[in-house]
Structure formats: structure tokens, C-alpha cells
Amino acid sequence: MTKPRMSAMDPLGLSEAMPAMSSRAEGKGLGLRGVVSPAESVAMSVSDGELQAAARVKLSLGATGKVFAVTGLAPGDGSADLAVRLGAALAAVEPAPVLLVDGSVAEPTQAAAFGLPAKPGLLEVLRGDVELSSAVHSVGPPNLSVLPLGKGDASLASLLAGPNAATVLAQIRDRYRYVVIEVGLVQKAPDALLLAAMTDGVVVAAATGDRRRHELQGLKQDLDRMKIPLLGVVLTTGGGRSKR
User: Fold this and answer.
1) Residue 229: pLDDT band with limits 50, 70, 90
2) Which of 1, 56, 128, 237 has the fewest CB atoms in 10 Å of its CB?
């Protein structure tokens, strides 16, 4: 099987502009040195490629677009790390508030990565247990904040269909200029696809050499059926390590 032609499915040109970074990768292409966590890397300078990618996301979202999801086709694509890097890059180029949301029910990572308490988070806010401001944490750059997933028995899908979801999402849109939501794998979990459908578009992480054109075409077809715009595809190495 042939490797996917990323450029054919990459309206933003992200595949070459901004590789993702693993928490155990040496960030040669990102201006980072040594073994760093996503939280530590946010405090460091982002690369020119990441700034270019953030600018392209801004351009694609337009004047009114604010919220986009980050997903992958398999666990090794590094969508969680990519969400962190895109959030950091947007915070660097945009003086207004930027929010990184952990919406990955299958594998939440952002609370641990940033050294934050696991709860309260998105689930508690959607249930109405706490206010949004009580669950959001400022990290790294002063205009970058993180909303962990949180914990609870109710499924994310049921909460997104509940009475508080519209109000919470409206609050998020009102308070932040850009919102990056790591949703997990939209083809594996209904709640991930439902959450992505509430955004203005999707950026896909795809591991270099592991993904094939038909896989990306299948994902694009799924997004098209839900009328979710594909903003771009970012090439990563296995496990989210940056492409050298």
C-alpha cells in the first residue's frame, strides 16, 4: 500500500509546518532540548513552523470561528501532544485568551501533563456541579488556560445532549478567542465525534509511515457526513514524536 498524499487532504499545509511532540521526545524541530513534558514545553518558545500552523488555523477559522477539535486515527498519532502545541502556538500569536480542553474520555492526559488536579473539569461543568471558572487553570503563557476532563459516572455523550451543554459551550465561546479541544479518536468513540461536531472544524494528527490514504479518506468521509470541516492534517512520528 502506498503512503497517503497528505497534501491532497491538507488545506492548511500543516503536514510539513508543524509536527507534534511527544512528552519523551527531543524537540530538535521545535526549538526544545532534552526530555520535557508538554507542560514544560509550553513555557518554552514555540517554533516558526508552529507559529505558521497557528496562523493557518486562524485564517481557516476566519473572523468568527473559535473552536476546533484535534483528533487522530490511532492512539500512536499523538493528538494529545499536538493539541498542546497548537494551543501554545495560538497563545503566542494571539494576545486574547486561549483555552485547551481535554475532551478525550478514553485517554485523558492534560491534567497529569500540566500537573493539575483531575477534577473538577469539563464533566463537572456540564453536569452543573461547578462553574466554568472554577474548573479552568491558567498555565504557561498568561493567556493560555486548561480545562481538564474531570470525573464522573455520566457519559460525555449524555452530558453533551443534556440541558447545560449549550450554555457551557456558549460561555466558552464568549470567554475565549480560541479553544483547542483534544477529543480523542472520533472514529472510535461516539462522544468524541459528537464533541467534534460542536466545533468549527477538525485538525488531524497522523503518524508518518503508519497511515494510508484510504484511512484519511475514510475519516474525511465521516467528518463530511457530520458536516464537520477538515482544517488540516499534521504528520507526526509514532507515539506523537516529532518528524525529524
Assistant:
1) very high
2) 1
pTM for this predicted structure: 0.81
Judging by DSSP bridges, how do beta strands 137-138 and 202-207 pair with one another? unpaired
**Residue 1 within any structural domain of the chain:** no
**Burial class of residue 222 in the structure, from the number of CB atoms within 10 Å of its CB (0-12 exposed, 13-18 middle, 19+ buried):** middle
Strand 144-147 and strand 137-138: pairing?
A: antiparallel
What is the phi/psi pair of residue 48, to 5°? -60, -40
Range of the domain at 164: 8-240
pLDDT, residue 125, reads 97
Crossing angle for the helix pair 79-93 and 48-61, nearest 10 degrees?
Answer: 80
Please say if the pLDDT value at position 168 is more than 90: yes
State the number of CA atoms in the 13 A half-sphere of 204 facing the CB.
31
Domain contains 2: no
Residue 93: which CATH number?
3.40.50.300
Determine contact, residues 71/79, Cβ cutoff 8 Å: yes
